[in-house]
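Support reply, case 0932

Customer input (verbatim):
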Amino acid sequence: MTLAARIARFTSALEAPTIPPEVLEKARTCLLNAYGIGLGGHATPYAPVARRAALAMEGEVPKGATLLGDGRTTTIGGACLANAALFHGRAQEDTCGAAHFGTILIPLLTALLEARRYPMARLLPALVAGYEVGGLLEKAYAGYTTPSGFRSSALYGVIAAAAAAARMMEFSAAQTAAALANAVSFTGGVLQSFADGTDEWRYQVGQAGLTGLAAAELARAGSVSAPLAFEGKSGLVRAFAGQDCDVGKLAASLGDDWAMLRVAFKPYPVCAFNQTPVIAALELREQLAGAALAGVRVRMNPYETGYAGMDAVGPFHTISGTLMSIPFCIATTLLHGAPDMRRMTTYDDPEVAALIRRIQLVPDPTVPVLSAVIEAETADCRRLVREQRMMPADYSYDRATVSAMVRRIGGEEGVPVVAFDRVEAFVARLPDVAIQEIVGAFALLQPEQAFA
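Our regenerated output:
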């Protein structure tokens, strides 16, 4: 049996009663995080750009899918593009390895539920299906594809979106396999925008969602799709990762090594790989107690230091540049404390720029991924070291912790508390709730309009 067929057999059979309770709980937490971070990102400029593009292409569609935080309705694909940019606006979405599947899957499934009125009981199984397929591939191959310049969110997210859409639409295993194969043929996405500090990556996730939807709809319409899309001579694994595909090993992990349980959350509005350096810098800042710095040496895993934009030293002109830069994130944290959106968009701080010039970034394979060692030399010749070793489990917050985090962010960004109340009630009551509760929570960002 091919890998597409094996994955399809697994995902098409997913039902809430047979999914482990801890996996379902994590799916609820991912929903809370995505909607909560989306509310907190309402003031970022990316969703308005995506909305204009979506409406120019798709137009307004009565009884379609809502542009969250805007109120107008459009096609499912247009809502995917715009709402994913909203959820990705703070760069504080969830992460599964190097991929941000929540920003792809949750806007897609939300739009499908609203526009097509699918039963709410399908939401959690469809969400789990997407994370499991995307996470399976990311874990196996991101170590090969990322150094080649491919972005995991875009590369594996299209396939994850196709799996989620297929499960939401209750495809047969054969239809699901075709959707996955179509998605493989349509997938891609490079990392150069991180190196250049530009915005394309904000919109990649929405494009991944609507491309995955197209892959699924083509399968439903009867497309004839490559059975060896993953493991074939010119299939995904050899084309993108340059590896042989171990179909048996990958298929055996489905339902055993749940990708959903590896999903982590971001306490700060910086790249996932910069979360630990920021935590380490906060601890070191306490030790320094205001002492002047002569130099800083940062050791991190080469997978992270080699990621596009991580070694950037400026000058910076966009948050797309600052949130990726290890030197910037460490410098602003050491000087000013925990980074927030104001600090991450302050591009002309002379103290930060001066400290960046004294930060040496060292790729060190002995430092695990998601860890960092910061060595600081003070002007009075003291040497302070902070070694911060973290794992995905350290960022795998429970629902209460995520609730506190998104409410804190909402307080910073002026989001009405009742919006979070509505989101939390929605998540807790699934499936006995309507998607209009989410639409209504985001409508509270529009005080001049009266959305229920």
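We compared this against your earlier run and they match. Two observations from our side: The chain has 21 helices and six strands. The chain has two domains: 3-265+396-443, 276-390. Please reopen the case if you see a mismatch on your end.
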